[in-house]
Amino acid sequence: MFDFWKKLGLVQVKEVDESFSQTMLMASSPAEWKSRGIKLYRENKYQMATMCFERAGDTNWEKRAKAAGLRATADHLRESNPQEACTILRQAAELFDFIGRAESAAECFCDLGDYERAGRIYFDKCRDPKKAGDCFTSAKSYKLAAKAYADGNYFLECLSACTQGNLFELGRQYIKKWKQAAPGGNGTAKQSKEIEKANKSFWRVAL
Fold first, then answer.
1. Helices (H), 113-188
2. Which residues, including other chains, have CB under 8 Å from residue 136's CB and lie 6 or more apart?
3. How far apart are CA 46 and CA 176, in angstroms?
4. How many domains does the chain fold into?
5. For residue 76, which of 6, 131, 193, 205 sits 20 to 30 Å off, Cα-Cα?
6. Inter-residue contact 88 to 53 (CB < 8 Å)
7. Among 40, 96, 99, 103, which residue's Cα sits nearest to residue 71?
8. Domain-located, residue 161
9. What is the mean pLDDT of each run of 10 residues along the chain (207 residues)?
């Protein structure tokens, strides 16, 4: 594990102080190793935390610390070596996604400019239609953006996505669906006003 961090330039010898070196040599239970790892993780000392989680046999926390370390390194290299930073950040994103840290994965993909991948994670795994719609809009995937916004009842944003993508028939279908649901069903007075506002704004552009 130490060699892994060293290859990526993550190991700072000064950070691995004598007390930690002594700690690594001491016999400890898995629970103690995990506790030390979490403490180091919260101090942003990801490489040392990773080694502790490895000793604890906690693969999930080990991967989480590794991904966080990769993300921190990518941020550090952003200006001096942007290409390498992107490569490392993608590794972090994939690892976060693999271990179920969906929001962290989506944030990394956003930083990479992979907005559609981020949008899918926000929508499918984070259940956050607003962020998903924003990402899909940035990716110019307007049909997906409209679907995400509609799922969260973001009426104006949904129709804005339809307008940007020239998806006027789709926008008309959403308006019809909302109007049918709002008056006598589960719709509220506030929703009805929002729908009417979105409807007028949409048709000013569509016509």
1. 115-124, 129-138, 142-151, 155-164, 168-181
2. 115, 116, 119, 142, 144, 145, 148, 161
3. 52
4. 1
5. 131
6. no
7. 96
8. no
9. 51 53 71 94 95 96 98 96 97 98 98 98 98 98 98 94 94 89 60 72 64
Type of residue numbered 60:
N
Dig out the tokens for 78 from the structure. 């952003």
Helix (H, G, I), strand (E, B) or coil at 184: coil
What is the extent of the structural domain holding 88? Answer: 1-112
* The pair of three-digit structure tokens given for residue 131, joined into one six-digit string: 């962020």
Q: What is the pTM of this model?
A: 0.81
Q: Rounded to an integer, what distance in angstroms lies between the CA atom of residue 51 and that of residue 23?
A: 11
Using the CB atoms, write b or e for 56-65: b if 16+ within 10 Å. bebeebbbbb
Enumerate residues 6+ apart whose C-beta is below 8 A from 16: 48
